[in-house]
Amino acid sequence: METDTAVMVRIGELWLKSEQVKKQFMASLMHNIRAALDAESIEYKTEEYRGRVLIYGDAERIASVVSRVFGIVDVSICTTCGNSPEDIAAAAISVAEGKLHPGMRFAVRARRQHVGGFTSQELARIVADAVWEKVPDFVVDLDNPEYEIFVEAREYGGIVYDSRIPGQGGLPLGTAGKAMVLLSAGIDSPVAAWLMMRRGVVVSGVFMDGGRWAGPATKDLALDNARILSTWSPGRNFAVWVVDMEPFFAAMIASCDRHYTCIFCKRFMMRVADALASRGRFDALVSGENLGQVASQTIQNMRVITASVETPILRPILTYDKEETVAIARKIGTFHENPGDTGCLAVPRKPATRSTVELIEKEEGSLDLAELIENACASAELWIARNGTISRKALET
Ligand code: ATP
Ligand code: MG
Predict the structure, then answer these.
(1) Where do the THUMP domain residues begin and end (predicted)?
(2) CATH architecture for the domain at 4-169
(3) Scanning 83, 161, 179, 364, which has its CA 20 to 30 A from the CA of 396?
(4) What integer pLDDT is reported at residue 395 of this predicted model?
């Protein structure tokens, strides 16, 4: 009997979509899988079936790369074989040997699709009997097995595996529009960006450099966040604009009520991000704001921040507890163990937890916002992150 090793990719939510949408999403998913493998210079061959993709090549490496591609529920390293119960049973023995031991609680999970002559229960029975011949004295326990083997008889062949590597879920990157994230040196905004990417949105970033008002480590950290995020979108550019925010701080501190500093600051950031976004086809802005985290993130102040631009501001981690955000940051690689000095020197001693649009607009009346925004945009440096490296993009001449 001929067997081979393949990585099987399982696709989730895509199957809720109409045929037309499914086709587009599958095409994006396959494109992204190829880009991820190409970025690692891995040789492979793919086969596509309804709801499944099989990838042949260095299975361990392929599985670890592909499990990071958005839109995939999980991946399994599996043995492929003929689709007769006998072939599947033989493959199951080779997979189970060395892992299943006498006395262990064991379960066979069988599936059958478009293959006639036996039911999935019969397939499970045939496989269990055959395994018993080689590795006897297991205890069948379908509720709480210590070792589980999955067998599938499909029209295109038999598939046997015993473990599932969790994927990221979500939707294929590139199927859900484009957004501009306000990307800082912190923990929250990279996680917000990643959650949008996981849902299929292509993300670019803007980092507002506070200069002498910001901690000296902030720019490098923010750029490093972009670099790491680019590893989640292999083969694509992750663009980041770095904007000089010092002139705004100087003007705002000279003439506005300091209690509202953080609200002026966030409204300005939104406006600059929006101005930069208006140059491309961006559908939304994204921030890492989180309900009640700091004074500027009370629901009342977020309302005032929201009113600064017409473009929708999406806040994916609005309701997360810090531990939940940190857990994701650790998983995706943006959690910096020793971030260094990232504190903002402009934060007032008693920042206001409440404001109104009227009051803030009145205060902002003393600023030449249009000019500040224009100058900020003109100061923007473009950086491009791609496949885990980042560099400054030279200006086109
Ligand atoms: P984070 O929230 O990302 O951990 P932070 O705690 O430094 O960063 P907050 O004061 O909580 O920032 O700001 C809320 C949100 O505003 C951030 O999540 C981010 O989207 C945006 N933001 C803050 N500082 C900057 C910056 N320097 N450049 C761009 N966006 C920023
Ligand atoms: Mg924050």
Answers:
(1) 60-164
(2) 2-Layer Sandwich (3.30)
(3) 179
(4) 67
